[in-house]
């Protein structure tokens, strides 16, 4: 295709036309001025103008009420001062105010950071959530640099208080080095170094093509590079051993924990002032050593007020500690250690049963509220979710929400409007359930709020709605799924009829055999 000059010329012409057409509607909006000093405050009206003006535009999409957003914004201010006069410009977008812009740019999460290069609006480069302004500068430097930038004097790196990742490679132009550098780019908060020095590597008893982790002159762990090694595998190894075997959940470690590529988490809720804290923590830490790279072990001090929201999410009350919960970050099913004895062997056995898929989820539920089914939107709890949702005579549309989530509260009026539109339909139920107060005994993919349809079938089917959040679109989706379920129900009823007839025939046959024997 590239060799067809005529086609290229035509394509270039079309692109020019589209760009010109795209600029026309935005000219009036682009009149919004851009502040040249510090961090730009971008809006829908000046975003395109900033894209055209700056070769590299690093944008932080933040929520004003988020503590994490304020921390990153402060890091942006510091980095912007260092980058003054460079071709990189830093900017922020308040997603609470600029919802239309965020939707246009496909920004779905808070604390999202994207680098736009040469005005390319469609293919931004994701930036890892930085811990500081230095992290931002390091990421930008590593992105635009090469593996040669990591060649360093190891005498200071090995003795560093922080983790240092050192790659010992035979050839500095090998694929291993490029993979190592790619991992370094994705982990800007960690020190990286590369060396070919045989004297250094022989001191630790290794051969080349190995990655070593150091802290305070102590070798923590080694990783042998293999042909099947990927960047993702290397990142998992580094980030896991960057943390302690059992890491305390704090404001400083929360980002590390929640962004970890290890998705299975064991959480110990414990009171640090209790008499048995040291014994329990020691057992938890020892068990953690056996599950490195498979499971992340995190302990939470229930006596710390700032951990209240996490405890609320997992429905843990202070007097219930100590207890262990297990969760996978790709779903919202939680597991509870079925034992009051938190020793090493008990914890290890529970973790292994979870990994083997043998552990049973713990179903928690709020009390059934009085008059829960008298309002247009029914208020479900853990005890009523499956009974209502999997009723084969009703189609049930359920919103799974979080009470402290602005995104959830923003959908409440829409859900009331949907219920009002369907109030004459006795075969359709519109409901909602607090996902933080009730364990959901089913896999719930994606973030909350989540909209799920339970079709009127004997089979326990759940269909997740991912369309536009408008009543007409919800009704269209509902109608489509109900028609599909109606066809499936005919087949389902026929299969059930045949099964019952076969069972009765078998029962009659057995009865006749018994009669003959008598």
TrEMBL record:
Keywords: Coiled coil, Signal. Residues 468-495 form a coiled coil. One of its GO terms (cellular component) is endoplasmic reticulum. Residues 1-21 form the signal peptide. SUPFAM superfamilies: Thioredoxin-like. The keyword Coiled coil applies. Residues 354-483 form the Thioredoxin domain. It comes from the Eukaryota. One of its GO terms (biological process) is response to endoplasmic reticulum stress. PROSITE patterns: THIOREDOXIN_2. It holds the Pfam family Thioredoxin. InterPro entries: Thioredoxin-like_sf, Thioredoxin_domain. The keyword Coiled coil applies. Belongs to the protein disulfide isomerase family. This is Thioredoxin domain-containing protein.
